């Protein structure tokens, strides 16, 4: 089970680092963080790419930080748990991070950009 957590943590960390280094430059349907709110403007798109990449990386590092001690224990204490419990926890660790990333990124975009995709601070200065 700890190996699964290590793999999940490594995948999220590497995905975040890759997205930080090579964010999707333009709004598209295939690459990058995509949502209705992130596609409202190029500024919202760029902010979503930057913010979600950091959250991906941090989530992956958090999973790694939790799973490395379990892996070092060598799973012996975890063998008495049922397969159902082990699979349930593994699914939880693979489903919750994307939901958390989406929730945090959408909240950030909602607080930073208006409904038309204009930066709130910039829109306040115009009026």
TrEMBL record:
Pfam families: SdpI. The chain crosses the membrane at residues 55-73, 85-104. The keyword Transmembrane applies. Keywords: Membrane, Transmembrane, Transmembrane helix. InterPro entries: SdpI/YhfL (IPR025962). This is SdpI family protein. It comes from Chitinophaga caseinilytica. The lineage of its organism: Bacteria, Pseudomonadati, Bacteroidota, Chitinophagia, Chitinophagales.
